[in-house]
Amino acid sequence: MITLYGIPNCDTVKKARNWLTDHNIEHQFHNFKKDALKQQTINQWVDSLGWEVLLNKRSTTWRKLSENDKTEIDRDKAIAIMLDNSSIIKRPVLDINGTLYVGFKADQYQDIF
Known about the structure:
This protein is of the alpha+beta class. It has one domain (2-112): Glutaredoxin (3-Layer(aba) Sandwich). Helices cover 50% and strands 15% of the residues. The chain is built from eight helices and four strands; from the N terminus they run βαβααααααββα. It has helices spanning 11-22, 32-35, 39-49, 51-54, 60-64, 67-70, 75-84, 106-112; strands at residues 2-6, 28-31, 93-96, 99-102. A four-stranded mixed sheet has the order 2-1-3-4, sandwiched between helices.
């Protein structure tokens, strides 16, 4: 099973969805905003990838956080921030039967598939 996680209006997510569709790769799309994310899902992602990969410190959402929220980040604090602000998660997250990839580059997807 292939699931692409993200936000539909994100340009990078759009590119990934279009790439999958153009290459006839069946997948489900999970909208962070509409369908939310369970803590268990984020915990699994963090265990697999590390919170540093998932927490997008270059995002507008990150810049809007308080200075207190941005300091002394650890695993638990990062997970709490991602649960409260799903748009801060680097996207898309591609899940292929439990193997995870973050971001989109056509070359990377070509190698994966």
